[in-house]
Every structure is written in structure tokens, then in C-alpha cells.
Amino acid sequence: MNLTPEDVDHVATLARLGITAEDRSRFAEQLSDVLEHFRALHALDTTGISPTAQVFNIHSVMRDDVARPSLPREQVLANAPRQEDGFFRVQAVLET
Amino acid sequence: MGAPGQPAGHTRHMHVTREHLVGISGDLTALTAPEARDLLVRRQISATELAHAVLGQIERTESQVRSFITVTADEALAQARAADVALGGSDPGATPPLTGIPVALKDLFCTTGVQTTAGSRILEGFIPPYDATVVARLRAAGAVFVGKANMDEFAMGSSTENSGYHPTHNPWDVSRVPGGSSGGSAAAVSAGQAILSLGTDTGGSIRQPASLCSVTGLKPTYGRVSRYGVVAFASSLDQVGPFSIGVEGSAMVLQAIAGADPMDATTAPFAVPDYRSTIRDGVKGLRIGVPAEYFTAGMEPDVERLVREAIQTLTSLGATVHPVSLPYSEHGLATYYIIAPAEASSNLSRYNGIKYGLAALDEVDMTRAMDATRQRGFGNEPKRRIMLGTYALSSGYYDAYYRKAQQVRTLIKADFDNAFASVDVIASPVSPTVAFKMGARTDDPLAMYLSDVCTIPVNVAGLPGISVPCGFDHQGLPVGLQLIGKAFDEATLFRAAFAYEEATSFHRQRPPLAEQADSEASVNQAAMGAGNAAGGPQRAPHA
């Protein structure tokens, strides 16, 4: 399995991860190595085997739908890089 | 639990006196957790003395080991003073079980008011407004928190070299890695910088550093311990567990942290047994499975020899040995390195510079700001795993990678189910090699990933596993024995591991670095007339 630098760019865009030109070629090489090593999985016959997402069958844990106190707003915002009027402040999403 | 300096199992001192202890080494940092508890309850030592002892050991050894990202000395001393008030009451034995015992926390457990970084620069300066459930439970149990231990960034790594802050060094040889990702937690306990510590294990991140640093480390069953307030890496695999000198300390920690938590819906609604009530029951009749697949090419001869000797020791204590087969485990690594990065790529999407952590405030466009924040804040390994995981989940590749890996996961788990139909525990090496030189695997991700080949299948199957010290190789470097248990049967792991350590003395050997610090402390104490410092702890490794 060979990942091209273009594949790396595409995946980085999906992951919202800025990468340098150096990252692009290094990741293409290293990720290709890792994927190559994992090719053995493709040779396994898994017909009719159901996938395991979680090992124990604990499903749909329910609790009473009762409102409880949560953290005060100022504590939640205390770690925010930017805040304004009690909200998280973000960069512009739409052009003005 | 023989006293330091005597072969364990020869005589057992359930009630070590202070005078006896000081006469042996003068060093409280050599205590196991149950010994410390015993001395605290009988007021032979105070929590404040014990806190000063470990903080002093940190001061003496930290420049060489670098176990911590943050040392919380003031908080520790305040907690110790509170512990002494509790222990000074009419019934010290009724105090919570970890009252006054110093504990180091891997830096991915949220701690109210204390920076929590997960080893990443992207979380530098993050001050959690709440405690992780395990932290709250340890607090309620009376623990004294000495600091936040170093780790591979977001728990991704097997050497603690991937920390965004600094690498941690192995106390047994500071030119070598302590293992990872919980390398700081393992090194801290090994060097006497804490009596106990807490780590997480997603593919071996507790057991492998425990093995490389010669301490006990337990990865509990998936669902046994709450992950609420634990920085997430791979949510179907992550589990919280303890490090200790001696098995009983790990049992004390698990007792305190295990059990259902309404804040983590993946915790199992099963009762938590009293682990210490069965820990001395021995291994007579215990059926130990030995999987040939876990003694493979690439394993160092000393590792294989010492693990086989350890199994022989268990046999001599009354256990029986049976060959078992886990044929799909050879695909564990590939399965894991698809599932774990896939889950990580999702979990790490929250680090985008909006709610907390690093933010590229110089960018005016939001998506560019996110790209830049993540580029600057993440190190190489998280970037690699985010890329790998995003690729495995992306359109056109999902079935070939992620779904395929989940199917193989079913097969790996079925192997263990079959094996456990006829045995009680499975024994294997923890790591195929002893601690490697720093820098040896940093440029080769695949070589680093192979460090966890014997531990990863256990996470994939969700089972509990423990690493206990089982000797030293020809260079004097530690080797660990892995015991794997049935789901939610940590009690049997503790029982087998305890029987093994009672018959051996490896867990009592301390790294020379911790001892050098000891002898200085002993001299000081002797000079103050506290007792005769002759004797000294057992020098390790023995021939």
C-alpha cells in the first residue's frame, strides 16, 4: 500500500491538520510502511465474522432524565483562548 | 513482604517497626503501600514525614529521571497534614485505606486546579475545573498527590520520548527509556519518588513500563475502572490502572478506584470483590496457560529464560502448566494500529483552539486557525496516528481497514475465550526486550510499535493483565512476567502475582540511583541520631 503525497494532503485536510512539505513526504513514507505491514489482515478470511466495536455486551445504560447542576459558566470558560460576553469566541466562519 | 535486605519469604514482618526500618535503611521511600499503611496507622511514622521523604527523593533524583511534568509539593504537604489530623484521631485504623500515602498521577487525569497536559503542548496551561472519577476516589481514600507524571503525548508511544515536554529516563539505567506511555508513573515508583502511581494502558502503557522499570503494574478489565475525566486516546481500549512496589499496593489502589460510575456508561455494573481478602490464598491447583505464540522471534534470550523460570516457580508453588494457543494474536498489532488511531483521530478532533489549550490566534480564518493550532500543538506521533486513523475511516477505505480490523478483533477475543475454558490465567512475557537505549526507535515508528506485541492483544480482547518483576538480564536490566486473566477476574491475577513475589525477591530490589539517594538519607538520619544506618537495602541486581 503506497500513500502518495497527494493522499497525505487529502487526509490532512479531512483531519484539519496543517502539515509542512517535509511532513508530507515523511508521512507518505512512514504511513506507507505501517499500512504495508498491516496488509496481512487482508489475507484473513473474515466472512461471516461480526465486527467487535466494544468487548463486553453492556448496552444502553440508562439513567433518570433529571436535571443536575453543571459547572458554572465562568469555570467552563476559564480555559478558553478567547471569550466574549459569556461565550467562546471564534474566528470568522463566513466572509463579511 | 520480607524486610529490605532479607530474602523475601524467609521471614515476614507484617508489622515492621520504625526502629527496625530505620536500622535497615532509614528510608521511608522504600516502603510498600501496605507497610506504609501499617506504620501510619500505628503512628510509627507520620504522613508529613512520608511526604517529606518522597519529595526529598524527587529533589535528589528528578534531574536524572525526570518523571514529572508538575510536582505539587505544597498540595502534597497540605494533604499530608490533613491525613495526620485524621490519623491522630481515636481510631486511626478506621481512616480511609490510602490515608497519607503518596501517589503520582499520570498527567492525563483531570485534577481540579492543577495543570493537566496529557504530555502535549496543545494542552499546556489547561487547568481542569473538575477531578477525574479516579482522582476523586483516590482523594476520598486519603491519598496524597505528589505530582503529575510525564507520559508520551496523548499516551501514544512506548518510551515516554514522545512527551511534548521532556523524555523520562529509566532509573535502572538513565541512558535507557522507562517504557511508555506511562513512563513517568513507572519511573516515579521505581525511583522511590512516590509509593504508588496511576497510569493508563491502551496497548501496554502500564504493563510495558512496569516491566522495564521493575515495578508491578496492572491493566484492569475494560469497564472495571471509570475513564470520566481521563484524557481519551482510544475509547474502546483505554483503561486506568495502578503501579506499585509489590502486588498488594496495586490491589489497594484498584480497590479504591474500581466500580461503576454514573459518569462513564462503559463501566460495568458488577460488584468489586475484596482483593486483599484472597491475595494470600496461593496458587495450588491454579491452571496456567502458556501460549507458544507469545515466545517468538525477536524476543531476547534472557527475557524468554526469565519468564520461563518464573512459570517454573509458579509450578513449584502448586500451579499446573498447560499449553494454549492464541493463533490470531499475531494479528493483534495490525488490528490495534487500525482501531486505536481511528478512535484517536476522532477523540483528538476536540483540540481545535476554541474551548481550551493552544490556539493560533494570529489566523483570522477559522479553518486555517484550526489547521495551524493542530500543526503547532501536536507532536509527530499524534499527527501520524491522526493521519492513519483518518485514512482508515475515510470513504472507500473504511471496510478494508476499520471494519476488517473489528472483525479480526472478534477472532482475537474468541481465541482468549477458548483458552480460558481450560485455564485460569495465561502467562507470557510483557515486552520482548529489556529497556532500549533512548533514541534507538524514535525514527522508526514500526519498531516502536513492536514493543507492545505481547500486551496489545490483551487490550484488544478487553482482559486484565498484570506485570510483575521476574528478574534481570545479563546487563542488570529488569524483565517482567505478564499474567493475563479472565474478564473481571483481577482477584486471581493478584493472588498468582502475590504468590510469585512472595517466593522471589525481585520486587524488593531498587535501582542504584534510588539507593544512592537512600544512603545519603541514611547518613543524615544516622547523624541526627535516628538510628544505625548500617545494612542498607539490597543492592540490585544480584548475580
Describe it.
The complex is a heterodimer of chains A (96) and B (543). By secondary structure, chain A is mainly alpha-helical. Chain A has a domain at 5-43: Orthogonal Bundle (Histone, subunit A). Helices cover 33% and strands 4% of the residues of chain A. Chain A is built from three helices and two strands. Chain A has helices spanning 5-14, 21-37, 73-77, and strands at 83-84, 87-88. Chain A has a two-stranded antiparallel ribbon with strand order 1-2. The radius of gyration of chain A is 23 Å and the shape is flat. Chain B is built from 17 helices and eleven strands. Mean pLDDT of chain B is 91; it is low at 1-14 and 522-543. Chain B has 543 residues and is an alpha/beta fold. Chain B is 37% helix and 11% strand. An eleven-stranded mixed beta sheet of chain B has the order 1-3-2-4-6-5-10-11-9-7-8, with helices on both faces. Chain B has helices spanning 18-24, 33-41, 47-65, 73-87, 133-140, 183-190, 207-213, 247-257, 301-316, 332-347, 366-377, 380-393, 399-419, 445-449, 456-460, 490-502, 512-527; strands spanning 68-71, 102-106, 144-149, 196-201, 216-219, 239-244, 287-291, 320-324, 425-429, 465-472, 478-485. Chain B has a domain at 58-331 and 407-505: Amidase signature (AS) domain (Amidase signature (AS) enzymes), CATH 3.90.1300.10. Chains A and B meet through helix 1 and helix 2 of A and helix 10, helix 11, helix 12, helix 13 and helix 14 of B.
